[in-house]
Amino acid sequence: MPGHGTRWGYHRLADRYARDIVRAACVGPGDLVVDIGAGTGALTSHLLAAGARVIAVELHPARADRLRQQFAHERVHVVRRDLALWRPPARPYVVVANPPFDAITMLLRRLTAAHSSMSRGHLVVPSYVAGRWARGAAQASRQYQVRTLRRLPDTAFMPAATQRTAVIAIERLRSA
Hints:
The protein is 25% helix and 28% strand. By secondary structure, it is of the alpha/beta class.
């Protein structure tokens, strides 16, 4: 799926929703958090305020440069990479993200794969994806549970969302 981001569709989360998503993710000091599709840092700034160390993944060159400048003296590592080529950390991490929707299925499969080190995640996704994954699409790995936390209004984004969206929580299941 290389080149998934060439259309550069971008819907920035309004600050209040970004703050609420980070708060619901229960991110704390020292957590390693991946912000996929970091854009201009709507979630990144709240993740830093919670004390997290952040890997901000962003393909768009100007937005990646802006992230590097904006967070130059913070606990942020900016990765400019197509999601089809990006490899998640090998050590345990949390995902809090508003990722590009055209790569969402590939991304969710990678994050919930049997070898994944993701402990949990809160992601903004299209509502139809939230429904499908909450009904069991992640059960193939038998390691993660997915549930829909809330629907987001179109006005949660700038510009307004063109499709219905939701926030999902992904949690690693405890081993028996």
